[in-house]
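Before relying on records like the one below, remember that each one covers exactly one chain. Contacts with other chains, cofactors or solvent are not represented anywhere in the record.
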Amino acid sequence: MKWTKNDLQQYVNAKEYVDTIIVPLLPFQLSNDSVLEKDAFQREVLVAFSQELEKELTGRVLLTPNYNYLKTSKKEQEIDRIHSWIDDIEQQPFNHVFYVTFDSTWKKNEQALRGTLIWLPGITSGTLQSDEMHSIIRSNVGQVSELIRSYWKDKD
């Protein structure tokens, strides 16, 4: 389920089946012209990936709005901010929290996150509409959905 009116209405009626949250972590930085295009492209790909992952796991996951942060911010501060999201999320019956990102700097702080970080190697160029990009996204979705299902098996 996505963060849309219709999907959230469905969630409220079926929340006992939806036990997993997916939080896309998306950095941005307008101050560095040399990485603007790459960063914007990675954002587009991560949003497409997150939506495809939600489709693949429909019925059991809720895709939150994107968590946006400045690329230059201190991760410790961002973790506190993310945990305020998680505090609110934990008011619902969620057993699993997954963060998806291309930003490798989260790996250094992974242990501090309440949930599981899924870091994807960055795709730095291409065209989102190309068949090749769709194939890459689908391949990654297949692998990540298998990983998430393994967490479900461990808990079930």
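The chain has one domain: 5-150.
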